[in-house]
Amino acid sequence: IQSAPQTPARFAMYAFCFTIPYGFILALGGLIGFLVKGSKVSLMAGVGSGAAMMALGTFSIQNYKRKTSYTMYNVLSLVVSGVVTYMMGKRYADTGAIFPAAVTGVLSLVMSLFLAYRVVMPMPPKKISSD
Q1: Which residues does 121 contact at the CB level (< 8 Å), separation at least 6?
Q2: Eight-state DSSP code of residue 29
Q3: How far apart, in whole angstroms, are the C-alpha atoms of residue 75 and residue 71?
Q4: What CA–CA distance (Å, rounded) separates 54 from 125?
Q5: How much is the pLDDT for 93?
Q6: Is the Cα dihedral 14, 20, 26, 28 positive or negative?
Q7: With a cut of 50, which residues of the chain have pLDDT below it?
Q8: Dihedral (C-alpha) 71, 77, 82, 85: value to the nearest 10 degrees?
C-alpha cells in the first residue's frame, strides 16, 4: 500500500494557516463594500464566503488537533475560493475595476492554487507527542 506523497519541509505550511486570514479579508472586504457603497450583495457575498472560509479553517484546526484527516475541509475551501476567483475574475472582465475585483480575484486565485497543492500534497497529521 502506497501512502500519499508528503510535502518537503521547506513547504511545510498547513492550509488553515491561510484559510482563516483569507476568510477574514473576504469578510472585511464585504463589510467595507457595504459601508462605502451600500452594496448588500457585497456584504452578503463577502461576509458569507469569508465566514465559510474561517469556519472551514477552524474545523481543519480541530481535526488537526484530533490527529484526524482535514483534507475534506481543504477541498471545501478550494471550492469556495474557486467560486470567489471565478466571480471576481468575471467582475473584473465586465468592469475593468482593479480594486476590488482584480485584487480579490488574484488573491483568491493564489489561495485556490495553494489549496489545490495542499489537496494533492497533504501535510501529515499532527504527530503524537511522547510527553
Answers
A1: 4, 5, 6, 7, 11
A2: H
A3: 6
A4: 20
A5: 95
A6: negative
A7: 131
A8: -140
Q: Which residue has the cell 462605502?
A: 36
- The dihedral region occupied by 67, where left means phi > 0, alpha psi between -120 and 50, and beta the remainder, is left
| Contact yes or no for 26/77 (Cβ under 8 A) | no
pTM: 0.85
- pLDDT tens per residue across span 37-54: 999 999 999 999 999 999
The three grid cell numbers given for residue 46, joined into one nine-digit string: 463577502
Q: From residue 85, how far is each of 4, 34, 103, 106 by CA, in Å?
A: 28, 20, 10, 7
Please check whether residue 12 is in contact with residue 50, taking contact to mean a CB–CB distance below 8 angstroms: no
Instruction: Tell me which amino acid residue 123 is.
Output: M
Residues counted in the chain: 131
For residue 90, which phi and psi values (nearest 5 degrees)?
A: -65, -40
* Nearest in space to 108 (alpha carbons), one of 33, 52, 41: 52
Helical residues (DSSP H) of 38-102, grouped into ranges: 40-66, 71-95
Assess whether the previous peptide bond of 100 is cis (omega < 30° from 0): yes
Angstrom distance (rounded) from CA 58 to CA 37: 31
